[in-house]
Amino acid sequence: MLLSDADKRLIDGDMLLIDVDILLIDGDMLLIDVDILLIDGDMLLIDGNKLLIDGDILLIDGDMLLIHGDMLLIDGDILLIDGDKLLIDVDMLLIDGNMLLIDGDILLIDGDMLLIDGDMQLIDGDMLLIDVDMLLLMATCY
Question: Which burial class, exposed, middle or buried, applies to 1 when counting CB atoms under 10 A from its CB (0-12, 13-18, 19+)?
């Protein structure tokens, strides 16, 4: 059954509402240019709120993006990748458990502290004061 650009269109037993409400592919419901898009049983709100992929919630152009259980706030606050917290354009960026303050203060790489455009920079456990006073390189004072 096909209702051209009106209500329902069935392809292989799946219901498609073109430019209306519901599009079903393989038994999943998709709302095109409206609200809900279901792919593999996951709910996606396109140009709306929620996008679910593999049970993870994604708010596109909104707040939260969850990929594999990690929380990402795009153009917001928190971005979690593999359990590490990233604050984009805010404060903290965590990569592999290291804290990075982008356009802020502290940058940690492999447990070493770097103050970008600030005071201290640690590389391989050695302290570097950039454009300040001291430069400690390989634990030797210059």
Answer: exposed
Per-residue b or e along 22-54, where b marks 16 or more CB atoms closer than 10 Å to that residue's CB: bbbbeebbbbbebbbbbbeebbbbbebbbbbbe
Please write the tens of the pLDDT for every residue from 86-110: 333 333 334 444 444 434 334 444 4
Integer Rg of the chain from CA: 24
> How is residue 70 written in tokens?
């990690």
Q: Is the pTM of this model over 0.70?
A: no
Q: Which residues pair with 126 in a beta bridge?
A: 123
**What residue type is 24 in one-letter code?**
L
Sort strands 56-58 and 51-53 into parallel, antiparallel or unpaired: antiparallel
Torsion of CA 37, 40, 41, 43, to 10 degrees: -30
Find all residues with CB under 8 Å of 84, minimum gap 6, and list them: 94, 95, 96, 97
Q: What is the pLDDT of residue 134?
A: 29
What Cα–Cα distance (Å) separates residue 98 from each residue in 93, 106, 112, 119?
Answer: 8, 10, 8, 18
